[in-house]
């Protein structure tokens, strides 16, 4: 399907939000789609960033240096059409758990994208987000989260928040065994956090993962 680009919102030198017209596209928060330049024959997966009731579709994208798709999408002029296929994937919240369960969302970099979609879609969701980033200026759209629900772990710069990686943060935090955990981002973090959670007694069927690369 073709969707017009409405806006490219630059958030930092390396990250932007791609806003597309909705065109009646329906998805479940946390699912991903494939996006590519029209007729290029190449596309990549991107997780939904916007909420299900929003009039447009948004994606939080890191521009990978030398990458085939992510740098080109940033340069697209508003009004241009891009190809979108999907939605795909099962990194979603079961409807019966939305109002009844407590969630911990752990993501690195743009791995916060599906959690933003959850927060925008389900206003009563009981969640905590632990977001691993390198620099202070990678705290994106923080106004969209209740501040008491968001912890940023900043690994490369000194800040007022937690200084270190998400794994450092988890090792010094009491891990609740009854919560449901969603991990999203690079595979190395996912493996490490999975082990930390399992060693703390969290059951494997309470852990869901989505690896970006
Ligand atoms: C299910 C799924 C959902 C995804 N959702 C998102 C999303 O919401 N936002 C997003 O920014 N990306 C997301 N990705 C990653 C995205 O699909 C692409 O891999 C990424 O945009 C690079 O594509 P490219 O064509 O620019 O680079 P390529 O030419 O494909 O590759 C360049 C290299 O960059 C590496 N790479 C990929 N992503 C990153 C990254 N974030 N940081 C550093 N290196 C990376 C790849 O492993 C590869 O070695 C998702 C991936 C999957 C599998």
Description:
There is one protein chain. By secondary structure, this protein is of the alpha/beta class. The protein has 2 domains: 2-88, Translation factors (Elongation Factor Tu (Ef-tu), domain 3); 95-211, Rossmann fold, CATH 3.40.50.80. It is 15% helix and 35% strand. Strand 7 (102-108), helix 2 and strand 8 (126-133) form a beta-alpha-beta unit. The longest helix has 13 residues, at 187-199. The structure holds flavin-adenine dinucleotide. Flavin-adenine dinucleotide binds next to strand 4 and strand 5.
Secondary-structure element series: EEEEEHEEHEEEHEHE
Q: Name the shape in a single word.
A: globular
CATH level 4 superfamily of the largest domain = Nucleotide-binding domain of ferredoxin-NADP reductase (FNR) module
Radius of gyration: 17 Å
List unreliable stretches of 5+ residues: none
What is the architecture of the largest domain at the second tier of CATH? 3-Layer(aba) Sandwich
Please tally the helical runs, counting DSSP H or I stretches of 4 or more residues: 4
The oligomeric state is single chain
Q: In CATH's first tier, which class of the largest domain applies? A: Alpha Beta
Instruction: Give the averaged pLDDT, no decimals.
Output: 97
Heteromolecules bound: flavin-adenine dinucleotide
| Strands, total number | 12
At the fold tier of CATH, the topology name of the largest domain is: Rossmann fold
Secondary-structure-based class equals alpha/beta
How many angstroms separate the termini?
25 Å
How many structurally independent domains? 2
Largest sheet, strands/sense/barrel: 6 strands, antiparallel
Helical fraction equals 10-25%
């Amino acid at each position: 399907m073709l969707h017009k680009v409405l806006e490219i919102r630059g958030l930092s030198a390396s990250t932007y939000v791609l806003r597309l017209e909705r065109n009646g596209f329906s998805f479940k928060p946390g699912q991903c789609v494939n996006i590519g330049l029209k007729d290029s024959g190449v596309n990549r997966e991107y997780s939904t960033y916007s909420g299900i009731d929003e009039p447009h579709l948004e994606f939080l994208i890191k521009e990978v240096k030398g990458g085939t798709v992510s740098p080109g999408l940033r340069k697209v002029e508003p009004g241009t059409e891009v190809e979108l296929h999907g939605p795909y994937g099962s990194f979603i919240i079961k409807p019966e758990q939305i109002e009844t369960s407590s969630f911990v969302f752990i993501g690195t970099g743009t791995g916060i994208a599906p959690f933003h979609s959850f927060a925008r879609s389900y206003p009563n969701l009981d969640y905590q987000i632990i977001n691993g980033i390198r620099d202070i200026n990678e705290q994106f759209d923080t106004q969209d989260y209740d501040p008491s629900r968001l912890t940023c772990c900043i690994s490369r710069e000194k800040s007022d928040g937690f200084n270190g990686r998400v794994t450092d943060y988890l090792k010094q935090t009491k891990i609740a065994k009854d919560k449901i955990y969603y991990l999203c981002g690079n595979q190395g973090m996912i493996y490490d956090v999975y082990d930390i959670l399992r060693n703390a007694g969290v059951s494997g069927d309470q852990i869901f993962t989505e690896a970006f690369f």
